[in-house]
Amino acid sequence: MTSLASRTEPVVEPKVSVIVPVYNRAAQLERLLAALSRQTLAKECFEILVCDDGSRDDVAAVVGRYRQDWGLDVRHLSQTNRGPGAARNLGLAEARAPLLGFTDSDCEPAEDWLEAIVAGFEFKAVGLIGGCIEFRRAEHLSGRCVNFLMSSSLGGGGARNPQARMSMKYYPRTCNMAVRTAVARRAGGFPHRRYGEDIAFSHAVLQTGARVAYVPTLRVLHNEQRSVAELFREAW
Q1: What would the DSSP string read from start to end of 76-90?
Q2: Domain for residue 38, yes or no?
Q3: How far is residue 94's CA from residue 77's CA, in Å, rounded to a whole number?
Q4: What CATH number did the domain enclosing 110 receive?
């Protein structure tokens, strides 16, 4: 006869590992973790990997607070400053779930974001998905131009024009992207570059033979406001 004391609770493996690279954005990270705490998917069904790219602010303290006070399965992974691609690869190596959800520290996913990720992989041929990126209205015209570009088919982050989606390859952006873990590892992860690593990663995934899909119900709000000059400084 087995005593109650000797019984162990079954380990629940997460369905989705959320990977978030962060660099000196503790305040923005707090808003993101608050959004993830409101997800309609049960908390035991996902884990969050905060991949700290050598931050000098209190990122670790924010992670600890949401783990203790909000009951989130969130881990703080750290490395020396090597860029967002390397930070995402750190999460890729540690992820326990069969699906990976990528977003940025300055984003707020919709409450059903994780459920949309799970539903997006209903078909086995689909290896990579992206969704709708909504931008908070910029205060200046230059910022609005950047937001329009980055959320359109030209920027690869969205596709307002269905014909554009049909004639152009769709490359999801890492602020709103999900991929099968096995596919991401087979593609070799992200290149160690400061800009455009999401496009390169999407291309590598397509080279494996996996299908990419646009899921309109997969929605995030992007809070960052950049001018055209700031966008070009990031690229070069």
Answers
A1: EEE-SS--HHHHHHH
A2: yes
A3: 9
A4: 3.90.550.10
Burial grade of 20 (CB within 10 A; 0-12, 13-18, 19 or more): buried
Q: Cα(14)–Cα(194) distance, rounded to whole angstroms? A: 30
Query: Locate tokens 């700031």: which residue?
Result: 230
Instruction: Show the domain range for 47.
Output: 12-130+171-216
What is the distance between the alpha carbons of residues 130 and 21, in angstroms, rounded to a whole number?
A: 17
* Amino acid symbol at 186: R
Residue 57 lies in a domain: yes
**Other residues' Cβ atoms within 10 Å of the Cβ of residue 110:** 21
Q: Report yes or no on 233 lying in a domain.
A: no
> Which parts of 28-185 are beta strand (E)?
46-52, 74-78, 99-102, 107-109, 126-135, 177-180
pLDDT digits (tens, 9 = 90+) for 60-103: 999 999 999 999 999 999 999 999 999 999 999 999 999 999 99
H or E stretch covering 44? none
Task: Look up the pTM and report it.
Answer: 0.82
